[in-house]
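Whether sequence alone determines local backbone shape is best considered at the level of individual chains. The sequence in question and its structure tokens are set out directly beneath this paragraph.

***
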Amino acid sequence: MSDAKDNPTLPTFLIAGAAKCGTTSLWAYLNQHPDVYMSPVKEVHFFDDEGEYAKGPPYYGLFFAGHASQRAIGEASPNYLNGGEITRRIRDLLPDVRLVFIFRDPVRRAYSNYWHASKKGWSMPPFEDALKGDRFPAMLETSRYARYLQSYYDAFPRERILCVLTEQLSKEPGAVLP
């Protein structure tokens, strides 16, 4: 007889990024929908953290144990956008998953990232200098969405991938949400 340890409930969709683009807002909106179960922890980091991934699918399934009769089950971890090994892990465990990527104007995303780091207490040079230097390469690199999306387009059918703009979600949430 199979139990939750052998056959855990796993997500049917992932919100996979990018950071500072509205993943928290999208997670919160979907968390209010009666047909959607979102993991109670917003950023599970199962696929992008070696220690979490090593715990295996039964551990990952614990994040969705509260699932009842909802048709869709999801989680949001912006770092999943980073692709590569993360994409392979997602494809291997969740071959039928739907992927939602949320993006915003790349410069605005980098600027938001800059202020987020400043608020965390990092000593930051002026924004323009932070972009030019090599001390904060991820600040600009993370805004190069196409580079990261390619591994998902290579691994999953296009109809399983939805790209949403933060600006669209802000102006017309009903057009974006189910």
Summary: The first strand starts at residue 13 and ends at 15. Residues 117 and 124 are 8 Å apart (CA to CA). The longest helix spans residues 106-119. The chain has a mean pLDDT of 85.
